[in-house]
Amino acid sequence: MDFLQTTLTSFVALIPVTLAQSLILGFVVAGIMIPFRMLSFPDLTSEGAFPLGGCICGVALAAGLSPITAIGIALLFGFIAGCCTAFIHLRFRIHTLLAGILVMTMLYSVNLRIMGRSNLSVFGSTTIFDWVPFTQAGFPIAKIVAVGIISVIVFLLLNFYFTTEKGTAVRAVGANPAMAEAQGINVWAATIGGVGLAGAFSALSGALMVQSQGFADVNMGLGILINGLAALMIGEAIVGKTTVWRQLLAPFAGAIVYYQLVSLCLAAGMPPPDLKLATGAFVLLMLALPSLRGAGGRQAATARESFRE
Amino acid sequence: MLEVRAARKTFYRGQPDEKVALNGLDLTLATGEFAVVIGSNGAGKSSMLNAVSGSLMLDSGSVIVNGDDLTAMPVHKRAARIARVFQDPMLGTAASMTVAENMLLADLRSRRRTLRPGLNAKRLSTYRERLSILGLGLENRLDTRVELLSGGQRQSLSLIMAVSGSPDLLLLDEHTAALDPRTADIVMSATVRAVEALKLTTLMVTHNMQHAVDYGHRVVMLDSGHVHLEIGGAEKANVTVPDLIGHFSTKTDRMLLAS
Questions:
Q1: Testing the interface with B: which of A90, A161, A164, A183 to mutate, by most B Cβ within 10 A?
Q2: Are A248 and A292 in a shared domain?
Q3: Contact between chains at A168 and B115 (C-beta distance less than 8 A)
Q4: Residue-wise pLDDT tens digits, A122-179
């Protein structure tokens, strides 16, 4: 009983902080989902674009720029990073995952160069969270309100875009590139634009995280991809992925649920070093489920398919 | 009108397995003409179709549609004028998207895509009407994802998508070869109806000699990368399957079985 009570108390106490964090990380999950699901382009750029956004935002805040300008610059460079990955894949016919690893690795040096050191404190700089009325700056509620509003706007914009004529064409590139090309769709433009957009979301997430935590660190992206994938899997399990709006809601919903689950595990006394192992095992299980359900001879084939998914 | 002039393409040039796919191929198709292309494997049928659609760039020669030189144009730009139905039903449609969304993509083939909502009531009713011509009930399944349709339904959908918007040129790449005989008949008769109703300039590749006899205004036989024989006019009207097979330089089992 005692164990349950302490677990529950510390979990409940952590809910607002975790919620703020998960809303911020919802964007990086969206940045993982868009290439993965909309473009069939499994991508690792987010692991580099997330800290890129953070480092740029950190440097911009330290230089005295407004938090909105800082986010704007982060978005732009995140977009460029995503475009680079897509271009490397298309032009040199390098596998998307390898192209992502290349860009992610190179971005580590870029991030260090941008900041000039491995971490940078921006405590005391104005952040967008200071502008939320009726709340005390620095408290989770201000972050929840600010990031919650941005999340809703981004979700609505994405939901609108992917059902327009242009957005439908982008989805066709993910569904069947040869057919998309035969229907007059420029596959290069759609892929580069789409993966770039995803990079921009990852960078946005990093920039918001830096404003939230008050410092930027080159290692802040470590493991973000697998966390994001886990969140995406949970989101898709809850809201589904059969229609455009469900698929777009999945990353945001998934991030919220996933980080609460992590918080619950930590509150229950799980040693933090084990977290990555547990997350990896969870993602593996989610990816393996379809082939575990399948019977006999079909198993090998399904396993390969779900990896491709 | 389609003109292919002195088209040449060599694969693996300078290597031991060098292969001349197109060897100075010339072909002219008048506006509204329906030509059936036959030839044994490796004769250059697919290479010719790919060269016309743009997925194969020629070493030399040119591809001209309605007077405009398309030789250097990428596939997605040619798509405004050229529509294509692939042999594999999986290739011609986007499986994870709905029937209506696939129709929308075809609808926008030759138009600028805007930031307006793609599907609206007016478009849906147009698509319903177009699909009802098939008589397969697809008009009632606009919200069904295409991966849930059978191969024949998917191929029929590909055909309707290809002919919507009256392309300057329709390419049919053995588009009934992967279907069972009954479905192949449905798709083939829908093809003929659409081609005649819209007076489409059509190039159909087939291994089915009976189709070559039954359909089209002209039979074009390819051999080693160039046009070996053309049969048109009255001669085409009276040609028989054994006549056609007699013209093949090498006879394969598949051809004999098809006769």
A1: A183
A2: no
A3: no
A4: 988 888 888 887 766 667 888 999 999 999 999 999 999 999 999 999 999 999 999 9
Architecture in CATH for domain B2-95+167-258 = 3-Layer(aba) Sandwich (3.40)
What ipTM score was computed for the predicted complex, to two decimals? Answer: 0.86
Chain A closest-CA separation from residue B113 CA (Å):
5
Same-domain status, A244 and A262: yes
pTM for the full model?
A: 0.87
Please tell me the predicted confidence (pLDDT) of residue B78. 93
Grouping H, G, I as helix, E, B as strand and the rest as coil, residue B96 is: coil
Structural domains in chain A (count): 2
Closest CB from B91, B104, B109 relative to A184: B109
Model confidence pLDDT, tens digit, residues B17-45: 888 899 999 999 999 999 999 988 888 89
What pLDDT sits at residue A292? 84
- The answer to whether A86 and A192 are in contact (CB under 8 A) is yes
Interfacial A residues in 170-189 facing B (CB < 8 Å): 171-172, 174-176, 178-187
Same domain for A162 and A72? yes
A-chain residue closest to B111, CA distance = A184
In whole angstroms, give the CA distance from residue A37 to residue A309.
Answer: 8
Distance CA A292, CA B205 (A): 43
- The domain in which residue A300 lies consists of 272-309
Cβ distance A179 to B91 less than 8 Å, yes or no, reads yes
pLDDT tens digit sequence for A243-256: 999 999 999 999 99
**Three-state SS letters, A199-219:** HHHHHHHHHHHHHHHCEEEHH
